[in-house]
Specification:
Distance between the termini: 50 Å
Radius of gyration: 26 Å
Structural class: mainly alpha
Number of domains: 1
Strand content: under 5%
Number of helices: 7
Helix content: 55-70%
Number of strands: 0
Mean pLDDT: 86
Largest sheet: none
Low-confidence stretches: 185-192
Order of helices and strands: HHHHHHH
């Protein structure tokens, strides 16, 4: 059985040439690794900030035009009794406050769960008010503009859940004692 090659038992002919460039496939591999590492590093903050921007916009819209939200609540048998401007304003405040917490990266796991609840409430209108969800003939499966607006809440709720999951994972890594795990916890935990 041959001994594994090490620097001490390699002949000069077997030694890699330090001056020769790495093969193109290795260079491309390293470049894509760096690209994917960068994407991984910015994905969670980008998702959190994007979600906050959408929430600010949706919350501000409730102050400018509360009647749209009131009309949606009236269309659903679940929320008819909440169909007031005051309730629309309260939802707008919750959305804007949640966005502030997300932008400042504070209490993200709790705020994310609040956002999921808010979005689940809005999405429930999609399910309980087919008259506003689907376009006039042909109806199902063709969505109205309102149906399209409500359907986006599935993606926003998934974004909120992913934001909560990232925050939980980041806090768990920070709480680990130094040296525990595979050694890259501190590097990951330092991410925003």
């Amino acid at each position: 059985m041959d001994a594994p090659l090490t620097q001490s038992n390699m002949s000069d002919a077997q030694m890699p040439d330090a001056a020769s460039p790495a093969p193109l496939s290795a260079q491309v591999g390293h470049a894509t690794d760096r690209l994917f590492a960068s994407v991984e590093q910015i994905s969670a903050p980008l998702l959190r900030i994007s979600l906050a921007v959408v929430l600010i916009w949706l919350g501000a819209d409730k102050f400018v035009n509360p009647m749209y939200t009131v009309g949606l609540m009236r269309a659903s048998p679940l929320y008819g009794f909440f169909a007031t401007n005051g309730f629309a304003y309260a939802l707008g405040v919750l959305e804007i406050v949640a966005a502030g917490f997300l932008l400042t990266n504070r209490a993200v796991r709790y705020v994310g769960l609040l956002v999921v609840l808010l979005l689940a409430g809005t999405f429930s209108i999609f399910l309980t008010a087919p008259a506003v969800t689907f376009a006039p003939p042909p109806g199902f499966p063709v969505l109205s503009h309102t149906g399209e607006f409500l359907l986006k809440d599935l993606v926003l709720a998934a974004a909120a859940i992913a934001t909560v999951a990232h925050d939980v994972r980041r806090r768990r890594q920070v709480a680990r004692p130094a040296g525990a795990g595979n050694g890259d916890g501190a590097r990951r935990a330092s991410g925003v």
